[in-house]
Amino acid sequence: MIQTRDMTTAELAALLAFHAEAGVEWLLEDEPVDRIAAFAAEKAARQGGRSATAPSAVGNTGSSAPAAGRSLASRAAPADQRQTARAQPSQSSALPAIPDENAVAEARFAAESARSLTELKTAIEGFSSCNLKTSARSTITAAGAAGSAIMVIGSMPSADDDREGLPFSGRAGLLLDRMLAAIGQSRGSVLVTTIIPWRPPGDRMPSAPETAICRPFIERQIALAEPRQILVLGNFAARFFFGETGTIHALRGKWREIGSGGAALPAMATLHPQELLTAPASKALAWMDLMAFSERLPGA
Description:
By secondary structure, the chain is an alpha/beta fold. The chain has 13 helices and six strands. It has helices at residues 9-21, 35-57, 64-87, 101-113, 117-126, 132-135, 159-164, 170-181, 208-225, 235-242, 248-251, 273-278, 283-294; strands at residues 143-144, 150-154, 191-194, 229-233, 255-260, 263-270. Strands 1-3-2-4-6-5 form a six-stranded mixed sheet. The protein is elongated.
């Protein structure tokens, strides 16, 4: 079997990318760690240390007991250290902590400083205070027609998006193209993006702090794009914008307003293409939503 020490830098990078796309979040050691034995060794070391100092505390002037205690502690310590080193990850390999409100403030400052979608793209790519960026291959930002009257917003990048570096790639992207074609639009005539710029590991849902950090970026994208209406795709995105806890089936097909920079923009939610691939029977609902959405399009 090939050892990692024999691999080139490019081969190691490809291997890590493969693991990330497969949803691997933790790497296990080759040998199992007996944490019960590690705890027992640590406990024995502590007890040995106390027994070594006990005779002097009660006034015993003999030297044999303290020497025996020191000997026990010295014998137990190396084993304890070896077990502890196996049981606990090193400081350098520990994952960074989830950023707090300071990271949200940094994201807000970076977003508000951008005066165009191009500047905002640069700001997002240079932002490093969100844990999701550490495991993602690409940073996903708005793509398509910057001056379009229609903005399509999904939830978060998929594995295909992360690999291609563009929103709505792969099979879900092809289905979105057909959905847009059904209302006389195309990928080049609308602006598409995602709420979260980085793919969460294993396609898990973003945490509340991660979502809060990404919020200023998507709100700024909307403000700079100035669309006339927004198509919201998926359960997460609908809850994010509408502030409700219902499922996409309860939130879809209704016109609502999204506040952005003091302006209220009309928005409608429907099912995400990935959800339609999983449950094709729901396509009829999505087509109904698209027809209702197209009634407000310019020239309709």
